[in-house]
Amino acid sequence: MAKLYFYYASMNAGKSTILLQSSFNYRERGMHTMLFTAAIDDRAGKGLGTIASRIGLTADAAAFDAGTDLYRIVVAEHAAQTVHCVLVDEAQFLTKAQVWQLARVCDELGIPVLTYGLRTDFQANLFEGSQWLLALADVLTEIKAVCMCGRKAIMNLRIDAQGLAVAAGAQTEIGGNDRYVALCRRHFTAALMGAKVQQGRV
Ligand SMILES: Nc1ncnc2c1ncn2[C@@H]1O[C@H](COP(=O)(O)OP(=O)(O)O)[C@@H](O)[C@H]1O
Ligand SMILES: Cc1cn([C@H]2C[C@H](O)[C@@H](COP(=O)(O)O)O2)c(=O)[nH]c1=O
Ligand SMILES: [Zn+2]
Asked: What is this enzyme's catalytic activity, as reactions (predicted)?
């Protein structure tokens, strides 16, 4: 029975790496996978639809935006060539409707769907896609990252060019290690209260 999976983590946790490894496992056995990533996240190249891991692994992927009908795209591909697995990176950027589309891919087409993304934004609010994946996914798996203090990093601090915490702004702002730091809740809170985020303890 196909399932909908949500692998969630802070930034820089290995999500894209694990996605690419999972897809490779299917493909090296001759099975066909479909990869999607958010069109807005152009760190690997504007609109190129590339999933890139910080350790250098990359793969072509279809780019989705808020208007993309993921169910329709998978149906069309599945009719042309059997799809054995759908993998979605940057799943936090999915809309509620798109999470339901992915649920249909599982329930009506019998294709497993593996999604990978953040749980919360720089203000500790759930992203829309994350909220509905937490609500609807059959399997929720946390990918663990480590704060500078050694605790599990579950929060994502947005920082400015001087490395200081940014508390206000738009939810969506594309960036990497230059713009975000994954922290434990204690250091996230301390940083927002003005503490300098540095190695070791606050
Ligand atoms: N040279 C390296 N060798 C091994 N692991 C690395 C290297 N550089 C970064 N990493 C690890 O790769 C992970 C980031 O991978 P990535 O898939 O891009 O994360 P995410 O998609 O969650 O942001 C981090 O856990 C980081 O510690
Ligand atoms: C916390 C946070 C992150 N984002 C963006 C920044 C990146 O482009 C992606 C996450 O990338 P990952 O390295 O694959 O985890 O999300 C954002 O727009 N808003 C936020 O609050
Ligand atoms: Zn910490």
From this structure: thymidine + ATP = dTMP + ADP + H(+)
Asked, for residue 10, whether it belongs to a domain, the answer is: yes
Cite the active site residues: 90
Q: Which domain holds residue 24?
A: 4-142
Residue 14: helix, strand or coil by DSSP?
A: coil
- CA-to-CA dists, residue 57 to 42, 78, 115, 136, 169, angstroms: 16, 26, 18, 29, 31
Instruction: Give yes or no for residue 17 CB within 6 A of ligand 1.
Output: yes
Is ipTM over 0.90? yes
Probe residue for ligand 2, chosen from 174, 177, 178 as the CB with the greatest number of ligand atoms within 8 Å: 174
Phi, psi (deg, nearest 5) at residue 2: -70, 145
User: Strands (DSSP E) along the chain, which ranges?
Assistant: 4-9, 33-38, 50-52, 58-60, 62-64, 85-88, 113-118, 139-142, 145-146, 152-153, 155-158, 180-183
Indicate which residue's Cα is closest to atom 5 of ligand 2: 174
pTM here is: 0.95
In a domain, 202, yes or no: no
Each residue's pLDDT tens digit, 31-81: 999 999 999 987 776 556 889 888 888 999 999 999 999 999 999 999 999
Tell me how far apart the alpha carbons of residues 86 and 26 are, in angstroms, rounded to a whole number.
11
